[in-house]
Amino acid sequence: xxxxxxxxxxxxxxxxxxxxxxxxxxxxxxxLKKVTEAIGDFDMAIKLDSxxxxxYAGKGAAYMMIMNSEDxxxxxxxxxxxxxxxxxxxxxxxxxxxxxxxxxxxxxxxGRAIDTDPSNAENYRGRAxxxxxxxxxxxxxxxxxKAIELAPMKDELYNFRGALYRESEKYDEAIADFxxxxxxxxxxxxxxxxxx
Length: 196
Hints:
Layout: H1 2-14, H2 19-31, H3 35-48, H4 53-65, H5 69-82, H6 87-99, H7 103-116, H8 121-133, H9 137-150, H10 155-167, H11 171-184, H12 189-195
Helix pairs in contact: 1-2, 2-3, 2-4, 3-4, 4-5, 4-6, 5-6, 6-7, 7-8, 8-9, 9-10, 10-11, 10-12, 11-12
């Protein structure tokens, strides 16, 4: 990420009015755990174009990294206002709402993300996790199965479903899913750990 950071910094020096450069460097700084600097880059992107949702979405992600759910939610909401198709912000906001105990609003937001992009497997996986935490295992299985249908090559989806099977005491099915995950990603520590 340091190489990417240096390239984006060089790009910004040569094009100081580039919203794209500030947004890209901001996300790079999140990966480098330089959250304050990332927020500064996203603020600059917003200053360059306050109607572009990407700066707000980036700030939401940065605030999530430091567990500031209030500021993260505010920025995600603004990103969604500016771009009603921003399913990443919707999904992230649903996590915040769920963590804050706003279950109804969380399910509405992740439902909105799914309605906006029904081909996004990650949103089904996210909602499956919420269902599971609420004790609705049947709905959790329904959503994780849909996620696997949409993205059958993602090992983490099989790991998730394997964990659901294990919690449901369906051990043969759990082992089969952990083995599928390992078939897709032989280096999956999660699958080895969960399979035992």
